[in-house]
Design brief:
Blueprint lengths: L9 H4 L10 H12 L39 H6 L5 H4 L6 H10 L7 E7 L38 E3 L10 H8 L4 H43 L6 H6 L5 H14 L5 H22 L36 H10 L15 E7 L8 H13 L4 E4 L9 H13 L3 E5 L30 E7 L21 E4 L3 E5 L3 E5 L2 H18 L5 H10 L2 E2 L3 E4 L2 E7 L8 E2 L2 H12 L13
Parallel strand pairs: 1-3, 1-4, 2-3, 4-5, 5-6, 6-7
Antiparallel strand pairs: 8-9, 10-13, 11-12
Bound molecules: calcium ion (CA) (4 copies).
């Protein structure tokens, strides 16, 4: 099973290595897999399904088997695949190109809608984001006064709940260090920590060794070839009697099967070393206190104010929020970078997710800030296995529901079945698979661009009860700090795709309720029974439809059509439900 972990299984999975350690996906995959055991213990797969019936709305063409593209995606297609359509393009995107053509053909008008990105910091100066930001009109920036008296000083584009902190422990470390919860929890956390820390150090050393081997081989082969840049063909055609050099060429040839170039391999190996170093030095370090610089007590929700009005990313590698924001709302058709999913969107930047586990206090207050300051949708591309103050978050979710705000949550990247009692991903909206605590949370799993057995990303969590729908999350091209663009993957990228579609539909049909938007996205998706490799058991294939409540891929075009029918009272949403 260990072949399934990203960082430890160079030979089979290297190609899937995330490029940036600091993105949450990497954090999730490596952390959860190392901390929670994940793939190292036999997985008891409990499919608690059967009770769930998704009734297909009549307007959606039901095709039992979708056919995937036979040829490889071009670079342009790779960059735009989330906007393609399963039927029209044989690419399992969200039908956004089709949706925009439909909007244009029908002259549909849209209103501005605010989407809060509750995440790491965001590059507020990015060329493709800077004109898309929510502005608090009543707040004067940087005068150290809370002009609009909303409790937050200088919150021009949102708020920064992390102050100047960035690295953080994960919850198991905090539970052990601060003796949170009861003794049962503490002992469990202690056990996990005792397992995770040596593993992080071991992984770090393994990565270092591979890095050194590749660096040395690269330098020697460059010298032998007499050139700085070489390709696989150069290696294959190179003949030498030196056993040493032959070995080095062998190493490099192997690396070419994991990435397109040796510089790319080196970049990812460096990222791996950094990642595992940070794991050992910060995330799993009992003695590290990342919160000290903030100055509040994170276990007292009444201890406010704290943080500051600047939600910009602090470091270039703090890229997660920027990437997520671009997927939702990068400025469309401006001749720059990418097109976000939603045209008329305003991004509210809420910096609350550090490089480590987020605090429940920041998440709860972040949700409340978004609700109180006009966001209609909150994107929540984060998650963790333990949530010591989860009641604060549940209360905030219910508050959002009461104010008609939709929360779109990433399913998480452990490749696990969230319906299994030992694999919760907080914040969830169902306690022990019970009834939903609120009707406004949409949980989203991740797809790859391949409409075939690899449709579901191998890292994506799933669950017939706990995951509502799927959206593109593998190799997603979006904005990066410093005015850059790059690919990242994770359910962290799937949630903002879904949030963007929700924003698009809601911006055109603003009278719909949050719960209706959630249901529209689920019901109007493209359903398929196509057999896919189960993320938790690569030897097993399961129908795609069995991995989520709706069994569907979000589709913006279908969602618009369904939304119109609901607005015109030609479709009764209440007749179609996902019965539990
Ligand atoms: Ca204010
Ligand atoms: Ca001010
Ligand atoms: Ca653009
Ligand atoms: Ca749910």
């Amino acid at each position: 099973m260990s072949t399934h972990t990203k960082y430890t299984s160079i030979p089979t999975k290297y190609v899937a290595l995330p490029t940036k350690h600091a993105d949450l996906k990497t954090k999730y995959v490596a952390l959860h897999r190392s901390i929670c055991g994940g793939f190292f213990k036999p997985l008891l797969l409990l499919f608690l399904l059967a009770s769930c019936k998704a009734l297909p709305p009549s307007f959606v063409v039901e095709t039992p088997v979708l056919t995937g593209k036979k040829t490889a995606l071009s670079l342009e297609e790779k960059k735009q695949w989330p906007h393609k359509d399963p039927y029209t393009d044989s690419i399992p995107g969200m039908g956004l190109e089709k949706a925009y053509a439909y909007i244009k053909d029908n002259g549909l008008k849209s209103n501005s809608i605010t989407v809060a990105v509750l995440d790491s910091g965001i590059d507020l100066l990015h060329e493709d984001l800077k004109d898309q930001l929510w502005i608090n009109e009543k707040e004067i920036a940087a005068n150290e006064i809370d002009d609009d008296k909303n409790g937050y000083t200088d919150d021009l584009h949102g708020y920064n709940f992390l102050g100047e902190s960035y690295h953080e422990q994960v919850e198991v470390t905090r539970i052990v260090a601060l003796k949170l919860g009861d003794t049962v929890l503490q002992e469990r956390a202690q056990k996990e920590l005792e397992k995770a820390l040596p593993k992080a150090l071991q992984d770090k050393n393994q990565y270092r060794q591979i890095l050194m081997a590749v660096e040395t081989a690269d330098a020697d082969v460059k010298k032998a070839l007499g050139k700085d840049r070489y390709y696989l063909a150069d290696l294959e055609n190179f003949e030498t009697n030196s056993i040493m050099l032959q070995q080095k060429i062998g190493v490099l040839k192997q690396m070419f099967s994991f990435a397109d170039s040796i510089p790319q391999v080196l970049k990812e190996l460096h990222a791996g070393v950094t990642h595992f170093s940070e794991l050992a030095d910060f995330n799993l370090n009992k003695n590290f206190d990342g919160r000290a610089v903030v100055g509040d007590n994170p276990y007292d929700i009444l201890d406010v104010p704290y943080g500051n009005g600047n939600p910009k990313n602090r470091l270039p590698e703090e890229s997660h929020g920027t990437h997520v924001a671009g997927i939702i709302g990068a400025q469309r058709d401006n001749g720059l970078g990418i097109n976000g999913a939603a045209a008329q969107v305003k991004i509210m930047a809420l910096r609350a997710v550090p490089n480590g586990d987020e605090y429940d206090k920041d998440i709860a207050l972040g949700i409340r800030y978004a609700v109180d300051n006009g966001a209609k949708i909150i994107n929540a591309s984060f998650g963790k296995s333990y949530s010591p103050n989860v009641e604060w978050v549940y209360e905030a979710i219910k508050y959002a529901a009461s104010k008609d705000v939709l929360i779109v949550h990433a399913a998480g990247n452990e490749g696990e079945n969230l319906d299994h009692p030992s694999h919760p991903n907080f914040p969830n909206d169902q306690i022990n698979n019970g009834p939903e605590i609120a009707n406004n949370v949409l949980t989203v799993g991740a797809l790859t661009s391949e409409l075939g057995e690899n449709l579901v990303a191998d890292f994506s969590n799933y669950g017939k009860i706990n995951v509502d729908v799927f959206a593109p999350g593998g190799a997603i091209y979006s904005t990066m700090p410093g005015g850059l663009y790059d690919f990242q993957d994770g359910t962290s990228m799937a949630a903002p795709g879904a949030a963007g579609v929700a924003a698009l539909v809601w911006s055109i049909y603003p009278n719909l309720q949050a719960a209706e938007i959630k249901k529209i996205l689920m019901l109007s998706g493209v359903r398929s029974e196509i057999p896919v490799i189960s993320p938790s058991d690569p030897d097993k294939k399961v129908p795609f439809s069995s991995l989520s409540v709706s069994g569907r891929i979000i589709n913006a075009y279908n969602a618009l059509i369904l939304a119109k029918q609901i607005q015109d009272k030609k479709f009764n949403l209440n007749k179609y439900d996902f019965i539990r």
